[in-house]
Amino acid sequence: MKAIRFETFGPADEVLIYGDIETPVAGPGEVLVKLHTSAVNPSDTKKRMASFPDLLDGGYIIPHSDGAGVIEAVGKGISESRIGERVFTFNAQYGRRFGTAAEYVALPSAHAPCLPDPASFEVGACLGIPAMTAHRCVFADGSVNGKTVLVTGGAGRVGFYAIQWAALSGARVIATASNDADADACRNAGASIIVNHRDAGWPEALLAATNGEKVDRVVEVEFGANLENVLKVIGTSGVIATYSSTAEKEPKLPFLKMMYLDITIRMVIVYAMPDDAKDHAVSDIQDALEAGRLQHRIARLIPLSDCAAAHREIEAGEVRGSVVLKISDD
Asked: What are the residue boundaries of the Enoyl reductase (ER) domain, all occurrences included (predicted)?
């Protein structure tokens, strides 16, 4: 099969190799998926740059956890009725060497749930890390119905889904966005109040818009960099669910201020989500896709052979929406 691999860490153009690799076989409890699409996420580019220093100890890596395709074969213990099923994948390259930047992937059956017919394979590739991370951030600490939820970076891949999950569940959603186009995207996704996080006084603008009412939950894209301002707008016993802190990788916490607010900090990563949270996210995603309730943003469709270009797009940080590799039209 054709696949992308890397054998050393480094820049995408230097280490990503497109070529032939032996097609995998579904092992016990696994399914073999003929992939139509694969999506690139920031964690994929970070792995390529040695965020897991021992990643290559077992040999080369086929990157990416997210993708979509059709089950072509099943391993021992998996019903043959799954053959022919349209699926999306998650956690394909977590704790395993071989991900979705290939024509085929073999992975645990549970990590290849059914992709409802209304959703395209391009949409299917967007669901693993972005939609499931957003779901966990919004729902891990209980219902948001009637609550006020702040989503920072609402036009980003995770933020865009977080706005929708919260709004669909009856929350009042506030989002931060830095330009008019991003503000429009947040508004269309369900945010009723938008503030510009590049303005130093955005916490004051948010509280003015809510008549002084503070938020109950925060879905946070830049935990360390935004913490000081977030603490100005979060209410007592509020929850900050964060999935990234890129600008400040080891933030300093104002412990007393946070303690007196009875704040809960929740760290979220799809890789480590408990199984019941994964099942909850998958079920809600499938229901929403069936009903056509979710919007999706696909910024780029790029051939598998140009995987390095897709990695550069993600690393540049300018793109809004998912960058998807096109693998097969069959």
From this structure: 19-325
Q: Rounded to an integer, what distance in angstroms lies between the CA atom of residue 137 and that of residue 241?
A: 5
| Strands 172-176 and 215-220, sheet pairing | unpaired
What backbone torsions phi and psi does residue 131 show, to the nearest 5 degrees? -70, -35
Phi, psi (rounded to 5 degrees) for 108: -55, 140
CA 65 to CA 207: how far, in whole Å? 39
Rounded distance between C-alpha atoms, residue 160 and residue 138, angstroms:
12
Residue owning tokens 């429009």: 184
pLDDT digits (tens, 9 = 90+) for 193-252: 999 999 999 999 999 999 999 999 999 999 999 999 999 999 999 999 999 999 999 999
Which structural domains are found in the chain, ordered by start? 2-126+296-326 (3.90.180.10), 130-271 (3.40.50.720)
Query: What pTM was estimated for this model as a whole?
Result: 0.96
- CB 262, CB 237: distance < 8 Å: yes
Strand intervals (E) in 161-297: 172-176, 193-195, 215-220, 234-242, 264-267
**What three-state secondary structure class fits 139?**
helix
Contact 121, 37 (CB under 8 A): yes
Return the number of other C-beta atoms located less than 10 Å from residue 114's C-beta: 14
E strand or H helix that includes residue 287: helix 275-291
